[in-house]
Amino acid sequence: MDLDGIEWRVSPGLTPYPEALAEMEARAAAIRSGEADELVWLLEHPPLYTAGTSADPAELFNPLGFPVFEAGRGGRYTYHGPGQRVGYVMLDLDRRGRDVRRYVHSLEDWVIDALGRLGVEAWRAPGRIGIWTERSGREAKIGAIGVRVRRWVTLHGFAVNLAPELSHFSGIVPCGIADFPVTSLGEMGESARPERFDLALRQGLCRFLRSFEGGAEEA
Hints:
Helices cover 26% and strands 29% of the residues. It contains 5 helices and 11 strands; from the N terminus they run E-E-H-E-E-E-E-E-H-H-E-E-E-E-H-H. A hairpin with a 2-residue loop joins strand 9 (128-135) and strand 10.
C-alpha cells in the first residue's frame, strides 16, 4: 500500500531478524539513491535480543538462550518477540529536514498518539528512554525507540508491546533501565490485536510527517 510516496507494509507471521536487517539496509540504500520509495514496515520477530551500540554485556542474562543480534541502532539491549509490534521506519531526512532529534521526538509522539487513539495514555519520562504508561499505580514501559540514520536515511524505529510474553524481558535489563517494570496492552486489559494498533498508527501518519519536516540541520 502506498501513501503519498511512502510504502506501508505489514508482514504476516514472524520475520527472522537477519532477513529484516538485510532488507532494511538494502531499502535505505535504495532510498538514498532514489531507486525506491520510503517505507514504514510493521512486523513481528521470533523471540530474540538485539544489542544497540551502547549495550553493556553485564545487562544480558539470557537464561532461555535466545539468539542475540548486533542491531547497529542506538541504545542498549532490547527484546523482540511474538505479540510485540515492531515498526521499521525508513524516511529520507535529506528532503524532509535534517534534524535527527526532532525526528526521534516526532517518532515518540507518533507512538504515543497511536496508543492514545486506543484509549491508553502514554508519555515520555525525563531521563528515561522509551514510551511509558501506568500499570497498577506505577510507571511501566510499553514501548522502545531505537534509531539509526545513515546518509540522512532513517533505519530501525520502535517496538510496542501488544501482548508479548513479558517474562522474556527478564533475560536483559531492558534499555538499561532496571528500576521500572515492562507492561503490554494485553496485561492492561486492552485489545492487543495488531490490526487495531496498525490502524491507529496509519491514522496519525500524516501528522507524524508534518511534525518534523523542514527541521534545521543537525549533525
